[in-house]
Design brief:
Blueprint: E1 3-8, H1 11-15, H2 18-23, E2 31-34, H3 39-48, H4 50-61, E3 66-71, H5 79-91, E4 94-99, H6 117-120, E5 121-125, E6 131-138, E7 141-144, E8 151-152, E9 165-167, E10 174-176, H7 182-189
Parallel strand pairs: 1-2, 1-3, 3-4, 4-10
Antiparallel strand pairs: 5-6, 5-9, 6-7, 6-8
């Protein structure tokens, strides 16, 4: 059965073509892409409000098993990318990040790697290790993430994690598309 992959990204990285290199590369057999948005549909949904956007994202996530976060320069700070990450984790998707700034843009230039969004999102684990409440780092401090409530964890957290706040980068890996040879290794990353 093919894995359905949801791609979370900042739209600017589509404009610069970097996100498209990953989204549209020649997937190996057994991978089906999901989560492609037509920009006009996305812009129209933004005019209708937050709940419409959440429903649209939730609907696109249905039936997916993996969420791939395409990390550009400002991806880490994008509200709806943050929501896509938190919602993906809460629903049990596998989640990875792929740095894309090392891919040449339409200007044929590369950029320095963008900040890891998993460093700016976290979770507070309850005292018995069965629930997680999302947090976001902003203006030098951690805050409750207001776009998504807490969720029940599939596996109880180890004693060392209980009652603590932890960054998502503790659990979720990132790769660099060029340095880590994404063309060759993408299928193994999403396993």
């Amino acid at each position: 059965m093919p894995k359905r992959v949801y791609f979370a990204f900042h739209y600017q990285d589509v404009v610069e073509f970097r996100a498209n290199v990953v989204r549209k590369h020649n997937f190996t057999e057994g991978v089906e892409a999901a989560g492609y948005y037509d920009h006009s549909i996305w812009e129209e949904s933004k005019k209708k409000g937050d709940e419409i956007l959440k429903r649209m994202i939730n609907g696109e996530l249905d039936g997916t098993s993996v969420t791939v976060v395409l990390i550009g320069s400002n991806t880490y700070a994008r509200r709806w990318v943050q929501y896509e990450i938190v919602k993906s984790i809460a629903r049990g998707n596998g989640v990875i990040g792929i740095h894309i700034n090392s891919i040449k843009g339409k200007d044929q230039l590369t950029k320095p790697l963008g900040p890891n969004p998993f460093d700016y999102l976290g979770a507070t684990i309850n005292h018995d290790g069965t629930q997680a409440s999302p947090t976001v780092f902003s203006n030098g401090a951690w805050y409750h993430y207001g776009d998504h409530g807490s969720w029940r964890l599939a596996n109880q957290q180890i004693a060392d994690n209980r009652g603590k706040h932890l960054q998502l980068s503790r659990w979720y890996r990132t790769y660099d598309w060029m340095t880590d040879n994404g063309y060759k290794n993408f299928s193994s990353w999403i396993e």
